[in-house]
Amino acid sequence: MSNTYLAGKIDVAVIGAGHAGIEAGLAAARLGCKTVVFTINLDAVGNCPCNPSIGGTAKGHLVREIDALGGEMGRTADACMLQSRMLNLGKGPAVHSLRVQIDRNQYARIMKHKLELQEGLQLKQAEVVDLEQDKDGWRLTTRLGALYLAGAVILCTGTFLGGKIFIGDVAYESGPDGMFPAAFLPDSLRRLGISLRRFKTGTPARVLRSSIQLEGLEVQQGDREIVPFSYDTEEGQVNREVCYVSWTNGETHQVIRENIGRSPLYAGLIEGVGPRYCPSIEDKVMRFPDKARHQLFIEPCGMDTEEMYLQGMSSSLPEEVQEKFYRTIPGLEQVQIMRSAYAIEYDCCDPLQLGPTLEFMDWPGLYGAGQFNGSSGYEEAAAQGLVAGINAAHKLLGKEPVVLDRSTSYIGTLIDDMITKGVEDPYRMMTSRSEYRLVLRQDNADERLTPLGRKLGLISDQRWESFCRKQAQKEQELKRVEETSFPPSQALNDILVSRGTTPVTTGVKLGELLKRPQLGYGDLAPVDRERPDLPKAVWEGVEIQLKYEGYIRRQLADIEEMRRVEKKRLPENMDYQQIKGLRLEAAEKLAKVRPANLGQASRISGVSPADISVLMIWLSVHSKDINEKAME
Fold first, then answer.
1. What pLDDT, in 10s, does the model give residues 113-147?
2. Do 107 and 48 contact (CB within 8 A), yes or no?
3. Which residue in 105, 184, 265, 496 has its CB near the most CB atoms, within 10 A?
4. DSSP class of residue 569?
5. Helix (H, G, I), strand (E, B) or coil at 81
6. CA distance readout (Å), 340 to 92, 99, 337, 426
7. Could you read off the pLDDT of 180-211 as tens digits, one per residue?
8. What are the strands, taking DSSP E only, across 248-318?
9. Cα–Cα distance between 553 and 549 in angstroms, integer?
10. Residue 91 DSSP label
11. Count of helices and strands (H, E) across the chain
12. Average pLDDT over all residues of the chain
């Protein structure tokens, strides 16, 4: 680009200031790197262009893990919480997940301010239009001709990269919420040789609160007892808003069917692949014709706005059709649309090009995070941003890379899935994706990850002292319940019978009683008079550990076996075509993914157990040569 000028030399450049970019920038700066976070529009920092909520099933786990490592999403979500609900309480603790409605404007303001206050970080409104690699790192050129030299670059472009909006037969280049798209950077990435593809996502309409007939709608209250996301958040949070529930009906579906030809998705105008688990309302109606109705949630967007969000009603139908079918829904008969629903198509990379640190395997010092990697969701983006930021900083500081495996976290599962299996549609985290979900609960995220966050330097002294105190309390309480015995008594047996479990005729340990599924900690309070006054999180952790002890032990054994297999490293530049007995498909898949170890290889689609056996034999025969090369 001509007429450029050198604007600065920096360590880490983060392109994008959404949820991935925020965590990446803060992590890199806090680890001591001179960092610049670039955004096309400063008013879009921390924007929540889709739903005004954080968390949800499995996503709540990710937020807890981000917080346990020292990230910001959980703290900020707590600070602007409108309503808090713990999901899946009717199921086991492995799938309990926190979800909160947030004030989206307040969330963005807080996150922007945190970036502005962070030492070693500059927040810059500028569109990066060109990216080049040189012998010393990376050259970034902005649209205004500023040249930055960076040691590492993290791409956190969200849905801005080549963004295109679709509403009916109207299509135009745009980012979310009417922002400018990143229109020039995709060509620069293609010139580098990075493989891009098109994905699509959708956003429901935002409507005026006063135009909704809220009377008669089902009211969805928040939890009475609020559990925060962050381990730093003190008690005292309160619900400030309620949500409402309504349903589509036959008339709604008829309007959609009559106008389905005007949907850009069904007219073939959209080439991008949409999210499998979050379809548009027209997709729901057409794919499930026997379903009489579909649920929607009417949710507040903030305390200082009258916008309400129609969760579950994303659409790309024309504006007049949207108004027509929305007004067939109870409560929305006179609704006024403030922002029309739209679909947005954007460029993202094939994550098979990335390694477990989220660095591109063929472009050292270049990292990807968030929707650029083919994921969907704020939480998935923030988790990847944190990992990319840590690893970019560590690379420049000469420190060991940080790799989270599947046994440590949902973050590790998310990254391993994406870089090993690839993605055919926007990736969404779900509890079913983790084979170790009983061990990877949201309640023990701090136990699993805070020691690592402390080691990295992202956990404050105050947080560490609080964590150590909680762990000591839990250990002491586990010891107490295992040693405390109750003699048979009328008071105890009355409790047991009332809870539908067998009374006792001999002395019984408190720990044995807590293992009974019918009993909880609170049920035994009248007879457990020596119980210390402990935080709820401590006794909940003790109870879960006791109740699921056998299952947890079995899963820990599975984890040990997985780690044994993952210790069998595979050479980075291994020629799989030369290994006799390996099927051609397997050799091609292995060469593309370049797995770091045998465990990762076993999870690649198209690689069979027989192929893994061939690799194991090959490794055993050539182990001496591999070790000698590693020592060189």
1. 999 999 999 999 999 999 999 988 999 999 999 99
2. yes
3. 265
4. B
5. strand
6. 39, 25, 6, 22
7. 999 999 999 999 999 999 999 999 999 999 99
8. 295-300, 307-311
9. 6
10. S
11. 19, 22
12. 94
Distance CA 66, CA 229 (A): 10
DSSP 183: -
Q: Whole-angstrom Cα distance, residue 158 to residue 370?
A: 6
Residue carrying structure tokens 């840590």: 390
User: Tens digit of pLDDT for each residue in 394-415?
Assistant: 999 999 999 999 999 999 999 9
Give the tokens for residue 85: 């609900």
State how far the Cα of 565 lies from the Cα of 561, in Å rounded to an integer: 6
**Pairing, β 366-368 against β 146-155:** parallel
**In degrees, to the nearest 5, what angle opens at C-alpha 113 toward C-alphas 108 and 118?**
130
Asked if residue 458 lies in contact with residue 29, where contact means CB atoms within 8 angstroms, the answer is no
In the block, residue with structure tokens 């250990």? 475
DSSP-assigned beta bridge partners for residue 83: 101
Residue where the block lists tokens 């993952």: 566
Structure tokens at 565: 């297999």
Query: Is residue 631 very low, low, confident or very high in pLDDT (cuts 50, 70, 90)?
Result: very low
Tokens of 137: 């790192």
Q: Which residue has the tokens 């801005």?
A: 160
Match 């009906």 to its residue by tokens: 249
Show Cβ contacts of residue 175 under 8 Å, excluding neighbours closer than 6 positions: 40, 44, 158, 159, 160, 163, 181, 182, 344
Strand-pair category, 35-39 with 5-15: parallel
Q: What is the rounded CA–CA span in Å between residue 601 and residue 609?
A: 10
C-alpha to C-alpha distance for 537 and 443, rounded to whole angstroms: 8
Radius of gyration of the chain (CA): 26
